[in-house]
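re: ur question from yesterday

yeah so i grabbed the chain u mentioned. its 335 aa long if i counted rite. heres the sequnce exactly as i have it in my notes:
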Amino acid sequence: MDSGQPLLGDAQVLRRVEQWLFEIRETETTAFADYVLPDTMTYEREEIVNYGHVLVDCPPCVEPGYEIRNEADIYPELAQRLGLGQYFERTRDENYELWLTCDDPAVTTVEPPITLERLREEQMIKLNTPQRCYDIFSDGGQLTESGRYNFYREELVGIKAGPVVDRIPALIDDQDMRAKYPLHLFIGRSRFFMQGQLREIAELDALSGSGPRLGMTVEDAQARGLKQGDMVEVFNGKGVVKVPLVIVNFLQPGMVHLWYAYGVKWYEPYGSEPAQELGSNCGMYEGADELNATWTPYLVDLYGKLGVPAALCNSCGISGAETIWDILCDVRRAE
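ran it thru and got these structure tokens back, copy pasting raw so excuse formatting
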């Protein structure tokens, strides 16, 4: 899919296109790409997955249609055109074999040794892992050098989002803000989708309610003179989102609900920006990227030195998913 923009130099193409190169559907991201190449879905390609205790070979169950191609096949061809082919000379199977020679003892100490041929034949191989889950306390480990909680980290001094004492307080605990925006907005995930995936399937979208809707209790709706089907505006100090109203019984009074991951095109019929317009300051804090760039590598290195299993090493920084629920708002009838 060519955007019609002038072609860039080879190095610029690699830097700009690689991030947006492959997709399985049209998204807000693809709208900014110079080129979009149709990637294979999980069902259309082989994947080898390490679940921590077992290694699983997942062969494709359907053949890719149309012009869909596995990105593992496209990278070498793209590299050839950019004069970088010498870095992509291994075949896909050779890369799988290389991956199986990792330095993870859970993989390398399995007997008989795990080979690609054996994995494809057996489909699933138990790794050499303990029969019970790792326990940081009973297994003699610790999460910090001292073994105690750290409320201040010298390594983060100088970063705007830095030491813990510099964090922004939660909006939902700000009583002055609550007086202005008395409703707590909960952005929930639909059981019919995987995050934003599969929303383009009309039947699933219909089951979930046919697009974005604001859920509100009957008490809160009546207090604002609203009823089922009204077009309403959800607003706070960051923006305004316009959607139809539905009365629901799964919320506590004082809470309203929008479904997670409906993109721009679903809000366009209402002449509205998507729900992200109302996002929490915590989730969008300008220092988050700098904090994560400094803290995450340090944390992973520290956990490795302390013997924490790699599967337990995870850090979302202050832009983690939990902050999407730290949103206050109010609701009014749309003009």
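noticed a couple things. The two ends are 39 Å apart (CA to CA). also The longest strand covers residues 240-247.
anyway ttyl
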